[in-house]
Amino acid sequence: MPKSRRDKKVSLTKTDRKGLSEKQQIIEEIQMCREKYENVFLFTVQNMRNSKLKEIRTKWKNSRFFFGKNRVMQLGLKLVSDEDKLGKLEAGMDQLREQMIGQCGLLFTSETKETVLDWFDSYIVDEYARSGFRATQTVKLEAGHLEEFSHAIEPHLRSLGMPTKLDRGVVTLYKEYTVCEKNKVLTPEQARILKLLGKPMAKFKIIINCCYTAKEGFELINNRDVEPKKKSKTSSTGIQNQKSSVALTASDTDGDEDEEDEDSEMELDEDDNVSNDEEI
Known about the structure:
Blueprint (H helix, E strand, L loop, with lengths): L18 H18 L2 E8 L3 H10 L4 E3 L3 H8 L10 H11 L6 E5 L3 H10 L1 E4 L11 E3 L2 E2 L8 H6 L4 E4 L2 E4 L3 E4 L7 H10 L4 E12 L3 E4 L15 H44 L1
Antiparallel strand pairs: 1-3, 1-10, 2-3, 4-10, 5-9, 6-8, 7-8, 10-11
Helix pairs in contact: 1-3
């Protein structure tokens, strides 16, 4: 069979790196939004779902959402000015940058603070729980026919641990089965079964943590439990002192060993003299 012309191997080393250009573009867009919009809100997402976040973006077409790396977004919010003469905008942006810890995003809008808070407080959507989530209720299935399932899915249900079989082409649970118990962590199999049963236990919600408005400046709305990681820095003098102490202890032990060796040599000499005297 002749070799196809489309069958060509492409080395991944020849692909273009778009990381730096995309980061620079995000920084420039944040800087433009900082000048265009009056208010900036820092938010976190509870039970993140990309589809729900896209729906919110379509509903807030007159605003801009940024959900990326904190370092990149912090560079977009950073303002260059004299350290001695920090204005209201610079100080507010610095406080906003300090709150960017963990997974968070930015919302640039010209809507008032009351409008944003009221809308996001009321926006709660039920979602299916994932593995690692604690069950909010106990779900038990009685033995009998499961007519909501097709016969083709029966092997998949058995692979998830459900005691099922086909009875005249109908999926049947031949004994009682507990899918999950309240306040217990869900396994991946339990999460898939709950999704197949159509029982959502999680809620998608966006929480506004803090904001900067043109009228009021920076304001902390909801405190977060996440704390910044502090790097332990040891001073150079401390390291030198540790090295010198180690060197001193090593030299002291060497001196002690030398003294012990000299004493043992003296004892050996005396023993040799005694043995020689006895032989004489």
